[in-house]
Design a protein that fits this description.
Blueprint: E1 2-7, E2 10-13, E3 18-26, E4 31-39, E5 46-52, E6 57-59, E7 67-72, E8 77-82, E9 91-102, E10 106-112, E11 116-121
Length: 122
């Protein structure tokens, strides 16, 4: 019902910047929250940043002050501006969204993008 298209990754030197984008598409959907996860080889997936439809934001401690998440509700798009990138930020970044639907009762739905590679060189 909902597809997430994430993009914007690439190769950047330490201290550089990247801007990730994630556009949601489909029909008859409403997303309550969107965000970004990341996973490096041999490490568990972790939540990087999230934002609700009302604009409430949360960040992983290690990215606070460097990353900024924003959302355009009209375009169903979420962005992650990443500044002062460090080699430790190297990972596959996945867009994530939480929605709901009605089928007798209300149920939550979770969606994932296919991931975009971010590589930060020293």
């Amino acid at each position: 019902q909902v597809q997430l298209a994430d993009s914007g990754g690439g190769l950047v030197q330490a201290g550089g910047s990247l801007r990730l984008s994630c556009a949601a598409s489909g029909s008859d959907f409403s997303l309550d929250a969107m965000g970004w996860y990341r996973q490096a080889p041999g490490k568990q997936r972790e939540s990087v940043a999230s934002i609700t439809s009302k604009g409430s934001r949360k960040y992983l401690d290690s990215v606070k002050g460097r990353f900024t998440i924003s959302r355009d509700n009209a375009k169903n798009t979420v962005y992650l501006q990443m500044n002062s990138l460090k080699p430790e930020d190297t990972a596959v970044y996945y867009c994530n969204a939480l929605g709901s639907h009605y089928n007798g009762g209300y149920y939550f739905d979770e969606y994932w993008g296919q991931g975009t590679q971010v590589t930060v060189s020293s």
